[in-house]
């Protein structure tokens, strides 16, 4: 491990995307299963962490927190302790699917709506034929259905549990159910990644990524799920982050 850099109380990993994949691969290939909880954190989550006591506890107990946002990269550089690059949930998912296709890993996909979940899994099975899709379930389940979903995941014992239910809800869900996820090796949230894979949402063009404007592309093009804050309201955390982590000494 290369250590971490502390940004507003959140210890961000200084591993590259490749090194993060190797870290997770080593854990998956261990004989004794143990849940590895990875969090991909952006400036919005970092600001939420300032006042959310439960999220603070979750962050302390997480196994790895990756810098999912150019703001985190800029803040680390401003601090004089840079991270090498962003490690996003989407990029990490694709890389793990690639590795899983070589290693015959099993995945369980939890989240998004039923139609998108089905399309995403079909696309993943087509692109990565050696990946074992252990199971899937949409993210709009009731409290009464939750125990059955957890029992199913425990029975299927997936190497990787991918959750697309939004942050920080995803990480709170993982934390709450750790005792029921002991047969899972790695779990992390991927935001709207399944929507992109399913074709529901257009992937960010390369030029937007090159200009570090991926957040703006999402802001302008990605619809907001029912019950969630508007994306414009959520982005109001960005000025707070830039002031506290980059401008203010």
UniProtKB/TrEMBL annotation:
It comes from the Bacteria. The keyword Transferase applies. Keywords: Glycosyltransferase, Transferase. This is Glycosyltransferase. The keyword Glycosyltransferase applies. NCBIfam families: wecG_tagA_cpsF. CDD domains: Glyco_transf_WecG_TagA. One of its GO terms (molecular function) is hexosyltransferase activity. PANTHER family: PTHR34136, UDP-N-ACETYL-D-MANNOSAMINURONIC ACID TRANSFERASE (PTHR34136:SF1). Pfam families: Glyco_tran_WecG.
């Amino acid at each position: 491990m290369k250590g971490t850099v502390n940004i507003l109380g959140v210890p961000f990993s200084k591993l590259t995307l490749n090194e993060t994949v190797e870290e997770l691969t080593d854990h998956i290939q261990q004989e004794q299963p143990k849940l590895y909880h990875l969090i991909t954190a952006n400036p919005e989550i970092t600001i939420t962490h300032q006042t959310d006591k439960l999220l603070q506890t979750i962050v302390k107990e997480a196994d790895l927190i990756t810098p999912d946002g150019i703001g985190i990269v800029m803040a680390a550089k401003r601090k004089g302790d840079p991270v090498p690059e962003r490690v996003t949930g989407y990029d990490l998912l694709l890389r793990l699917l690639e590795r899983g296709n070589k290693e015959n890993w099993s995945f369980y996909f939890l989240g998004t709506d039923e139609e998108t979940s089905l399309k995403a899994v079909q696309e993943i099975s087509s692109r990565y034929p050696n990946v074992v899709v252990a199971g899937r379930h949409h993210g709009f389940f009731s409290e009464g259905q939750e125990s059955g979903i957890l029992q199913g995941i425990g029975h299927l014992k997936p190497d990787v549990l991918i959750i697309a239910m939004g942050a920080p809800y995803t990480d709170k869900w993982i934390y709450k159910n750790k005792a029921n996820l002991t047969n899972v090796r790695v779990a992390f949230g991927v935001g709207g990644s399944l929507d992109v894979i399913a074709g529901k949402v257009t992937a960010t063009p390369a030029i937007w990524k090159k200009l570090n404007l991926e957040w703006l592309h999402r802001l302008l093009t990605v619809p907001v799920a029912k019950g969630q804050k508007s994306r414009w309201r959520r982005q109001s955390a960005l000025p707070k982050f830039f002031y506290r982590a980059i401008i203010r000494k």
